[in-house]
Amino acid sequence: MSRKVACTGIKPTGSPHLGNYFGMYKPAIELAKDYDTRYFIADYHALNTIKDPEKMRELSYEVAATWLACGLDPEKSIIYKQSAVPYTFELHTILMAFASKGLMNRAHAYKAVVQANKENGRDPDDGVNVGLFTYPILMAADILQFDSDVVPVGKDQVQHLEMTVDIAQSINYNYKAELLTIPEALVRKETGLITGLDGRKMSKSYNNTIPLFLPKKKLRKTIMKIVTNSQTIDEPKNPDTCNVFALYKLFATEEQQEDLRKRYLAGGLGWGHAKQELFEVMDAYLSPMREKYDALMEDKTYLEKILKEGAEKANEIVEKKLAYLRAALGVR
Ligand code: TRP
After folding, report:
1. pTM above 0.90, yes or no
2. What is the DSSP letter of 22?
3. Confidence check: pLDDT of 229 > 60
4. CA–centroid distance, residue 153 to ligand 1 (Å)
5. Which residue among 78, 142, 174, 199 is buried most deeply as judged by most CB within 10 Å?
6. Which residue in the list 4, 26, 55, 204 is annotated as catalytic?
7. Separation of 139 CA from ligand 1 center, angstroms?
8. Active site residue 300
């Protein structure tokens, strides 16, 4: 029996951080045990915001190297750049004919920009390019081209998935056939619960992230910046309301967690000590991945080779799907 298909994309718009790792990379890699996976670097989605070619190239390499350093096996999973599979954009064009404008008007990302413009007395369309407006349709093409069954995403992408389902259903309805597989969002519970340096959700837009592959010294320096309260060393401290402890739990064994919990409650543990404990477990966990990542970033030829092979595999699958769809639509 053939396995189900899981598909997801990551935009190369910033260096991968711990929130991305626990929210996306790690669960997606675990999913590869049970699913046929198609993971891609959503560079054409990123083009809406990244208009510097050097930055685009570098951030795309970073995402590719992160997938591999975190343990994705390119022999078993397909990993590729969105821009290297032109069929996606043909499907995008097909989907446009079925995606209602009203549906796109309701997309959160687009609405947020319009709202901010209105609040600031600007024209509602100020700075809005059509790519931002049609973003959910391109995303639907990414997903539907593979007949994906599940799409691992963060909570913020659930609406986009609903739009994908909506578009696919209107096509199936019109042609009275299951031309497209209806996908399902796979939303991880933990997603969004990784706290950043200031205690809010870790996010690039809050500027509170801990990048995944900081060199040791920088990692320690960054951890020391985590915001804590002004309790003195002697005071007993509450681990359950502490940003440092929340991060510690992600990296430490049960035993280590119990041990540090006791030291919090007993008093005599300063914030500097707690942060040092955090640094040690985090560094032990991340070091092997960081070494792999650094080696990959030094070997762009290898990264290019992996991405090229991935794109070939993806093109082969999608080419067939598009031939099938064109025939069904009566266009070729
Ligand atoms: N929009 C997603 C994000 O911002 C990235 C993305 C693009 C994606 N295409 C996709 C995710 C297809 C899942 C499936 O995170």
Report:
1. yes
2. I
3. yes
4. 7
5. 142
6. 204
7. 6
8. no
